[in-house]
Amino acid sequence: MPEKTIKTNALYSKIEDLLKSIPDFVTEENELRYNKIKEAAENGNPVLIEPLLKDSKIKAAFFTPVLDSFVFKTKDFKEFLDYSSSNNSYSQYLGKKIGLYCGDSALVDRNEVVLNFPFKDCVLEGGQKKEDGIDKYFKYDEKKKDYVEIKDKRREVFFNETLAKDEIDNLFEPKAFCNVKRYESGKKPAETSHFNRDAELNRKRGLSEDTITDNLIIKGNNLLALHSLKKEFEGKIKLIYIDPPYNTGSDSFVYNDKFNHSAWLTFMKNRLEIARYLLRDDGFIVIHCDFIEDAYLKVLLDEVFYNKNYVNTISIRDSHPSGLKLSAKEKTIIKTKSSILIYKRNPETEIKPIYQQRVEWDTHFNSFVDLKTLEKYPLIEYLRNNKIVDDTFTLNEYSLQNNMFKEFVFQHKNEIFQSTKEIPEDARIESLHKKDVVIKYGNGEYAFNGRRLSPLSKSIVNVGFDGFEKYDFGKLLCDFWDDIDFNNTQSEGDVAFPSGKKPEKLLARIITMFSSENDIILDYHLGSGTTAAVAHKMNRQYIGIEQLDYGENDSVVRLRNVINGDTTGISKTVNWKGGGSFVYMELAEKNEKAMRLISACKDLRELEEVFKILCVKYFLHYNVRVNDFINKTCKEEEFKKLSLKRQKEIFMKMIDLNQLYVNVSDRNDKDSGLTKNDVAATEDFYRIKDGE
Which of 125, 215, 542, 659 pairs as cysteine with 582 (C-beta 3.0–4.6 A)? Predict the structure, then answer.
């Protein structure tokens, strides 16, 4: 029986005995009256609360200390009763279909909307490697005369928040760091144990003076990394942008088919909940998603960030109907877009308007007014009479392609007008009385025949990125973006990427819209590093987290290119010449020690002895059939005949290199595997003083 189930049974037995000692909560058959108990919990009935408070273990599990009092966690207690009375299942929702519920009530019975799915109340640590979606074990192959891996789909392992609180607490405890290196322009990467904290910069941006001001790239599980950032960066992140796996079946999210959908939602929910704590009060979270999950993600985000903080969903054209896509045109409507969901941390936060460069001429601007004489002419007539254009020229949406026309209208932007009906009543009446005459009213406004004349100058706006002004004809950017090229990003950052990269122009626009210089940007699905690269070029501090290894296309490779003067992407637009620095760091994995123990073994007997230690002190892959390996595989003659090197390779495959990171509290343990520099860097990051 799993250890956490044993612990749950022990706690439930204690609570059951206590409740059965209270006559109001027991039937004549000595069965617990769960509805009566839940009602008492909901009402805070002292008959229930007092005996619960008297037991130290129950008190620790279901009460939160606040000053000199304790607050009863009613919801947790009620859910505990449900879980524990249902065969100790890992989730209240196990076996139910995905649907819309509020608590235990169907949507039709409630006004609120929440997303209910299997394992909703669990934590999914969530490796993202392809191998993390399979079960594997070893079997002797007669043809190859060697042991081969056998792979099956596996059922994901979830940690339950209510039943395994101690396990969750340990999982979320801040982790130690290792391999900490500083990368600077023109220098070789150098080991460091020090993080910069620019007090003056922090004062300017309203943060505590000792906040880390280095750019950070963190390698490791993003859920654990986010929890490790909480102490230092809670309430300090202005913008979170993520481009998570879309759960399409061809991306990096591969789990058991039965719960693939709910596993993705659990995976997202766990990370969104901690991400919310990291945002500033005026912060934003922006999530790029696909039609596979965006509807479910919207409801999930409503629950985590609240519907009142929902801004909008942007539809962005990211492909064109061509190639293989067209083969399905008779079966479906071809997909050429993705979605960007946007939420505020605070509903009162204002958004910076962004303008898109207009490439077509707005033909409503068809009048020219001589502001000295207030003579009004049709624009095309004025252009032809003054030989600005020839007689064949006409005003249409393509007019801006004529360089002479574009230069003229740009220079005379205050004299070219369109008419609109929005006008103060007194000015309208005066204008109607002076038929066919341009009048001037108010603070430099003009009217003609009862309509206001709006100048072209109001359509010339900054269409550049934040801090890099470019004034041109523009239009307000709304919720459909179709002007960004997704097909030619291969060369950006001088790194390739197997599943495609987001264009730097897209990230520059988002960063401009939702942040300002020196703000902190977070991307915990960093991928090829586009967010960090653009943030670096646009003078933002950034934190990037990635747990997959992309080798020569890794984000660190890209950022080294950036600080050394990368010329791709938005570099020309923002006049990027290189410079700056970033710190690379890894979550320290405890299993490094286990790998060394295996390497040091001299024969199979030692390997078997070491394996016993590993089963106790270290974390083996949860998708390895350990008992099958110990009791069957190791006993087979074929396995014994393998070379020691091959035996070690097989034993090493048992070790999970992506789990069980070293907690900060264990940093000084002799078997932590940390160097002195690792410990020093960890203590500096968390501002741990001597003796703490």
Answer: 215
